[in-house]
Amino acid sequence: MLLLLLGIVVVHVAALVLLFVSTIVSAWAVNPNSSSDLWTNCTTLNGVSRCDPADTGVWIQAVQALMILSIIFSFLSLFLFFCQLFTLQKGGRFFLTGAFQIFASLFVMSGAIIYTVMNSEWVHESESYGFSYILAWVAFPLAFISGLIYVILRKRE
């Protein structure tokens, strides 16, 4: 049982780290001379870097909010797991923990979908998706799977 708990915590922390990195790091759209993320657009011309704030459009603010909500819900889910681990009765399920983690996965999925759909209006065609965008999509199934495991998991002696 201890190995199972350790494994689920490792998957949960991995998803939380991926969510944090994908939200903060500037690489949602990249090309050799520029990179864009949810917060800034950086360009490099003749060795000089210049970063401007991201567009203030409604859709980018929605993506920012959804990614921040996914981090908050994933962190709360981890906190609730440790609280429930010591307070839940034997045989009880971690429903609240699982629900928060599933919400976190749905938030990151929604944010990535909005970014994918609206990306063509904001980012130049020469840019491709960066690793932060890919990490957001990798965090989605990790968070969803850990949420399902929490819902299925029963507390034992």
Automatic annotation (TrEMBL):
It holds the Pfam family PMP22_Claudin. It is found in: Cell membrane; Membrane. Residues 1-29 form the signal peptide. InterPro entries: PMP-22/EMP/MP20-like (IPR050579), PMP22/EMP/MP20/Claudin (IPR004031), PMP22_EMP_MP20 (IPR004032). It comes from the Eukaryota. The chain crosses the membrane at residues 58-82, 94-118, 130-153. GO terms for biological process: nervous system development. GO terms for cellular component: plasma membrane. Keywords: Cell membrane, Glycoprotein, Membrane, Signal, Transmembrane, Transmembrane helix, Ubl conjugation. It is a multi-pass membrane protein. Belongs to the PMP-22/EMP/MP20 family. Might be involved in growth regulation, and in myelinization in the peripheral nervous system. This is Peripheral myelin protein 22. The gene is LOC107597829.
